[in-house]
Amino acid sequence: MDTKKKKMASRRDVIRKMFQGAGFLGMGGFAWGAYIDKAKAGELILRPPGAIEKDDFLKACIKCGACVEACPYDTLILAEPGDNKPVGTPYFEPRIIPCEMCPDIPCVPVCPSGALNEESVTSFDEKENKNILDINKAKMGVAVIDEKSCVAFWGIQCDLCYRACPIMDEAISLKYERNERTGKHAFLKPVINKDVCTGCGLCEHACVTERAAIRILPIEIATGKVGDHYIKGWDKKDENRLKKVEDDEQKEDKNNSGTSDKAMDYLNGDWQEIID
Amino acid sequence: MKNNKYLILRRITQLSILILFIGANWYEWNILKGNYSTAKVLDIFYLSDPYAVLQTFATGFIIGVDVLIGTLIIVLFYGLIGGRAFCSWVCPMNIVTDTANWLRKKFKMYKENVKVPIKRNMRYWILGLGLVLSAIFGVAAFELVSPVAMLHRGLIFGWGVGLAAVFLVFFFDLFVLQNGWCGYVCPIGGFYSLLNKVSIFKIQHDKDKCTNCNKCLIACPEKQVLIHIIGKESRQITGGECTNCGRCIDVCNDDSLKFSINKFKKFTK
Questions:
Q1: B140 CB within 8 Å of a chain A CB
Q2: Which of A24, A59, A61, A74 to mutate to test the interface with B (most CBs of B within 10 A)?
Q3: How confident is the model at residue A272 (pLDDT cuts 50, 70, 90)?
Q4: Model pTM above 0.80
Q5: Between the CA of residue A34 and those of A20, A223, B141, B146, B147, what are the distances in Å?
Q6: How far is the C-alpha of A269 from the C-alpha of A80, rounded, in Å?
Q7: Cβ <8 Å between A56 and B66
Q8: Which of A40, A88, A179, B101 makes the best surface tag, with the fewest CB within 10 Å?
Q9: Which residue of A has its CA nearest to B33?
Q10: Architecture of domain A54-137
Q11: What are B143-193's pLDDT values in tens digits?
Q12: pLDDT higher than threshold 60 for residue B46
């Protein structure tokens, strides 16, 4: 009797312990998870050149700091707790130290995990007939100008960002415009070509205003995205996309009804029969 | 006189590895570059922390082959040779927690009994939880909070808030729980404990020489591996949580403990 009672109690104990353990685990999991969620939330992070897509980068980066050690300008830093960025991952702040766009890109080939993809900053050199590293292909971010605080838009001659840009006249070009206010001067307005800009941040670093009027933003923040259903009819290449869609639809039709007829064929065919 | 042979040897390996890491960043040495989760040796091959790589796998990312080979080297090295030696011979956090433990003994902190409702197997739950959270959030979960990594980053790239995490561990070990971090919480140590099955080096106890002074038990950071053996049985310490730190050998006045080659005997406990 006594032993039986003991056994019952111990079984109850086991169940209680199981729940307690699960509770602990859940509690820890929630707290830890909340921290991870917060650490991941940071959006305004500029990654080294060749960094793969944001979510994949977080998965891949093993936080070894090899890129940071390789960087000769101390541009790259590893995130610390409190930086509001995933701890241990590399980033840079162009207003403090921009990316100098080394032609040999020392930070990328050292990455052991594949978080920095060498291929994305490699292009084929026809002269040498081999693949070479090409920092101009990097997409770390994109420069965005606040026209209100850019003194060039006021009519003051300032082309610092234009001259700081390593891809001068391509990534940033100057647009001449007549200054109607004075009637005899010209505006020299900096204009960014987003397709060329690498997001190195030399422009942001060079900007004379108290808080930079030209800044680097992560591409997914600085740019919009048009849905697939918009097609530029005047662009041959884009128009071809439509053909592909039609093909796909036909294939689907074939699968569904077993006929390769287009909708128009059906209508036309029917009329022909009635006339006959 | 107290013998500190293994303690001194451990400090030498720990500090040499740390100095090599620091030198790699400051003076561009290429002997050992990187950190405690992934390091490149002599610019030729990598060494990688298997738990860190496992977390990366949990996120669903297939990591580079170089890192996988580096993981294999580490798994084979500790699995077959070193046992859980990473914790006591390599990890820089060991210096911090040993200091806390030393102060704890010096100031008799253990007299202030703080009840902490955690058990030593908590590290395995944290290990598992880390993998689950890595899979859910798509980022290596423990690497975001690892004080080991923060200590390394602080020493090499300069201190920030990461220092707080190191102090948190230090105070936890000093005021709350003896060997709390390394012996209860850290999943890296937990992983190496699980891996530590067939490694060559094991500590051998000789019951006949033992005088039951219990100095080894006081010194040992993972007492559960010793407690059923000391003074009771002449056998090897086979518990996976033994870090091969050799502290028990250092403090033993009776020559009843020594390093030995694994005899692969089965024990129930």
A1: yes
A2: A59
A3: low
A4: no
A5: 21, 29, 11, 16, 18
A6: 71
A7: no
A8: A179
A9: A66
A10: 2-Layer Sandwich (3.30)
A11: 888 888 888 888 887 777 778 888 888 888 888 888 888 888 899 998 998
A12: yes
